[in-house]
Amino acid sequence: MATLPFIGYSEDCRIAGDYVLTGDRLLESLNSSDEIELLGASVDALSGPEHLERPTLRLAASEFLIIELSGPPGDPGRHVHTQVTRVRAQVGPYLVEGEVHAVPSADPMSRALHRAGPFVPVTRAVVAGDAIGIVRVAVGVAINRMHLSALDEIDDYASVDAILAGRRPGWVLG
Q: What pTM did the predictor assign?
């Protein structure tokens, strides 16, 4: 049984553990299952000191708003050339800024909203939220489009640059 390190965020918790991989890649596994099973799980409340640990934890995938992506990129033979579009997304109480990818013939915004499964990958992502502060995610995140209230194309990296320099870029968090 293959596992990957896992960190996910619900409305009010950070959930970590080892994800039991059900496919070749994390995103495929997330999008093909209604449940997420974690081994050695820990759950931390975002607004207080509450902490819970369990040897095994199963949660509905719909509970997760954002999941940090980890693990190998998958079979290089399956990779295709894509165009990159810079986006800002409001996902529950979190604001995500990063890049979505689509084949050159597709509209990347439409592709993000209509892809199979609930989770949409956003690479070079920065996640902000009042309860979590600011987190820079090197590889990317998967956002649950069922919790998506806004997805906008943006022109520059000004917000990311401000975040990485330790400044709040004037985002309004829900």
A: 0.83
